[in-house]
Amino acid sequence: MSSESIILIRNLRKVYRVGEVDVEALRGVDLDVPKGEFLSIIGPSGSGKSTLFNIIGGLTPPTSGQVRVGQEDLATLTDAGRTRLRKRTVGFVFQKFNLLPNLTARDNIDLARFLGGRAAKNGPDPEFENVLKLLGIANRLDHRPNALSGGEQQRVAVARAIVNHPSILLADEPTGNLDSVNSAAVLDILKDLNKRLGQTVLMITHNPEAAAYADRTIHMRDGRIDA
Amino acid sequence: MIGKLVLENIRHKFMRTVLSVLLIAVPVTLILVIVGLSHGMVNDSKSRQRGVGADILVRPPYSSLMSASTTNIPEELVAKLATHAHVTAAMGTVNQSAGGLSDSITGIDKGEMDRMSGGLTIDEGRGLRDPDDVLLDTYYADQRHAKVGQKIEIGHHQWNVVGIVEPGKLSHIFCNIRFLQDLYSTKGLVSQIYLKVDDAKNIDPVIQDLKGQLKDYPIYSMQDMLDLISPDKVPYLSQFIFVIIGISVVISFAVVALSMYMAVLQRTREIGILKAIGASQSFILTLIVAESLAVGFAGTVLGILFSFGTRGLLMKLVPSSLPQAIVYEWWPRAAGIVLFAALLGALYPGISAARHDPIEALAYE
Questions:
Q1: The dihedral sign for the CA sequence B268, B269, B272, B274
Q2: Contact B276/A98, CB-based, under 8 Å?
Q3: Interface predicted TM-score (ipTM)
Q4: Per-residue pLDDT, B210
Q5: Closest to B270 (Cβ–Cβ): which among A100, A112, A115?
Q6: Residues of chain B positioned with their CB less than 8 A from the CB of A115
Q7: Cβ neighbours, 10 Å, residue B200
Q8: What is the pLDDT of residues A64-81, one digit of tens each?
Q9: Which residues in chain A have Cβ-Cβ distances shorter than 8 Å to B1?
């Protein structure tokens, strides 16, 4: 593993059991992601990019192979270990925003902060207050998701994902539910976070224009990364 | 933060929560009403016994304190005991069922009653004179909507209501002892004998003396008897309450389990989101348990309020037969029972939620 790599994957395989059939979602993936890189992963449906994203994010364990995220070896990590990874090392941004509908934007962000163990001991986070201003949602924080536009919801989701200063931001089709104006705004934010704060960003997308925001793009097909 | 999440979840599914709270309130009410009735009826009986003003009670041979009265004490014993050196008054009474759940009609001799207790306080009408005369206390008169001058059926006999008396002395219903003895073919017999002694310090010596003379008769000081009368001395009552508690646990468990299972189903996606942002299995289980306990607590509070409602209703409908007490020491017990059941009911849905696969949960629509 390169000293600069924050993600190192070797011969990663993932097999899902669907009914009585085994489905091979990843068939030997190798990947290095240097710290501070903005990487986009592009590929058709069923190519395995979401599975790769879920394994890197600790949502599901690999079937075989080596996966290192930060200092963690995901192949040997327990469920509690993966939960710890999701708390502090990775932050998620989803296509459908996935904010908790009963909570205000502020509470959604505070909940992630609470789960990350930062709420009580650290108090206000001036750096994060600046990020909220950067995201342009400082005056929308007391609204519930159903009172926010799609673009606003996704910005809240970005804020929630980075509130615990994770090493890696994983964005799964972050512009998939947004119009072009809001898509551009969200992509600008991701780019800005990457450049300004050195945030490592992995983004899945179908959209080549969105992929162009990244420093590097990899293509996936049939559970493998195209050379 | 857990408190806020629980509160927001409850607010978001307000009607489901209200229904769950309402259903949990039912067993709480059931427990508190059963316990309240047992305490209320016993307290009512104790208060009326205390109102007699006697110091010693002589019960029929081989009877127990809580058994129904039989009428088999020879009446001449009343006169004999009245001649005891330290006895200042003796009163024999006859008790017969008045046909209700717990009511009885008590035959008294007016002179004996006056000497023993200072007499009944008549609010309306007059005292006992003729064979069919009956006096009702205000509770029983209210229960039967009876007025002075009316005829009333008690124990398959038509009585003339001649007076309404203040409650708290011996019985809710009084008639002439001679007539009651004739009516039930117990001429020359009484159900129990009350004695008043000249000095409190003579109560125990008199009891010991009488026990020597009347070997088969249970004889109690009134104070001991009042101390002995309690709901846990009522035959099978504690078993009955235990059954009611069992039913309450089952109902509360089922309500909470169903409610939280539905909640977990409805919130599958939210559970996936929580897991994605780092919620542990224990955090999600805690969330479900906390919400269940909040619902259980609200159900307990509502059940307590309902028990005041049932007391008011019973007081309006059957103040004499079913006096319901508010037994404060059972509030935490009822709460403990329901919260225990709520905790059990939360475990399966809680564990199921905690074990949700985050990817499947996030894909749930």
A1: negative
A2: yes
A3: 0.89
A4: 92
A5: A100
A6: 274, 277-279, 283
A7: 10
A8: 999 999 888 888 889 889
A9: 110-111, 114, 119
Whether A147 has a pLDDT exceeding 90, the answer reads: yes
Q: Is residue A14 part of a domain?
A: no
Q: Give A95-133 pLDDT, tens digit per residue.
A: 888 999 989 999 999 899 888 887 655 566 676 777 777
Domain that holds residue A124: 35-61+76-225
- Tell me the average pLDDT of chain B: 88
A165: which chain B residues are within 8 Å (Cβ-Cβ)? none
User: pLDDT for B331-360, tens place per residue?
Assistant: 999 999 889 988 888 888 889 888 888 888
Question: What is the rounded CA–CA span in Å between residue B33 and residue A44?
Answer: 67
CB-CB: which of B269, B280, B359 is closest to A59? B359
* DSSP secondary structure letters along B166-177: -S-SS-SEEEEH
Domain tally for chain A?
Answer: 1
- Convert B72-93 to b/e letters by CB count within 10 Å (16 or more is b): ebebebbeebbebebbebbbbb
Residue A80: which of B273, B276, B280 has the nearest Cβ? B280
Domains of chain B, by residue range, sit at: 2-43+236-363, 60-217
What number of helices (H) and strands (E) belong to chain B? 13, 12
CB contact under 8 A, B5 and A103: yes
Partner-chain residue, chosen from B275, B277, B281, that has the shortest CB–CB distance to A160: B277
What's the confidence (pLDDT) of residue B130? 92
- Cβ-based contacts of A59 with chain B (< 8 Å): 275-276, 358-359, 362
Q: How far apart are CA A138 and CA A105, in angstroms?
A: 10
Instruction: State the sign of the Cα–Cα–Cα–Cα dihedral B193, B49, B51, B160.
Output: negative
In this structure, the dihedral spanned by the alpha carbons of residues A157, A160, A165 and A168, taken in order and rounded to 10 degrees, is -40
Name which residue leads in pLDDT, B13 or B203.
B203
Report CB contact under 8 Å: B283, A57: no
Give yes or no for B351 touching A (CB within 8 A): no
User: Nearest by CB to A103, which of B8, B279, B357?
Assistant: B8
The reply to whether A1 falls in a domain is: no
Nearest Cα neighbor of B173 from B128, B225, B226, B130 is B128
- How many beta-carbon pairs below 8 A join chains A and B? 69
- The rounded distance, in Å, linking the Cα atoms of A50 and B354 is 23
Instruction: Give, rounded to a whole angstrom, the gap between the first and last alpha carbons of chain A.
Output: 20
User: B73 pairs with which residues across the strands?
Assistant: B190
Phi, psi of A175 (to 5 degrees): -110, 10
